[in-house]
Design a protein that fits this description.
By secondary structure, this protein is α/β, with parallel strands linked by helices. It has helices at about 20-30, 90-100, 115-120, 125-130, 145-155, 165-184; strands at about 5-10, 35-40, 45, 50-55, 65-70, 85, 105-110, 135-140, 160. A hairpin with a 5-residue loop joins strand 4 (about 50-55) and strand 5. The mean pLDDT is about 90.
């Protein structure tokens, strides 16, 4: 990869479209011929309530259960946050996916949060991949409460704030064009 890679942080509160934006942008760039790699973490809803989080490998499409709501009575065996019980097996799988993700055109990591920033566990292979810079561009999802720490770690990053669902299509089209300009 020539030059310094572009780094973008998608940030927004709970359920504001960060993952949806990341998935649609990844799909649009894959359709344009980009090598897109990494992990997205879509929510799982039951009766309108978010009960789990899956992890999806963007290259293979393989999907695994990453975390379950503690309140709903998770049976997973990995680290906990205040809301989620994670699967250590799936975190290990995600780290394997992220270790093999680069080099690529677009690296997507959805998301880096308290496990990574506060406890140095979780998707640490993602943190390493970002810092190695073997990609043309990277899109990282980070919550607002960790945004200042992320910007301190990666001062070159540009922040994309979450947008309402109705504006996503237009924003995706703009970002696909902007990122496509990086390949020319």
């Amino acid at each position: 990869m020539k030059g310094k890679p572009a780094l973008f942080i998608v940030s927004g509160d709970f359920e504001t479209g960060k993952t949806r934006f990341s998935q649609h942008l990844a799909q649009g760039l894959q359709e344009a011929g980009w090598d897109v790699a990494g992990i997205v973490s879509p929510a799982v809803f039951e009766d309108g309530v978010k009960t789990a989080i899956d992890a999806v490998d963007l290259r293979s499409g393989e999907r695994r259960r990453l975390a379950e709501s503690i309140q709903a009575g998770s049976s997973l065996d990995g680290p906990e946050t205040t809301r989620w019980q994670f699967s250590q097996e799936v975190l290990d799988w995600c780290n394997g996916v992220l270790r093999s993700a680069t080099p690529c055109d677009l690296l997507v990591i959805d998301e880096l949060g308290p496990l990574e920033f506060d406890r140095s566990i979780g998707l640490m292979a993602g943190m390493q991949a970002i810092e190695e810079g073997r990609y043309l561009a990277s899109l990282i999802v980070i919550r607002p409460m960790l945004l200042e720490r992320a910007k301190a770690r990666w001062p070159q990053a540009e922040v994309i704030h979450s947008v309402p669902a109705e504006a996503t299509v237009l924003l995706i089209e703009r970002w696909i064009q902007r990122l496509s300009d990086l390949k020319t």
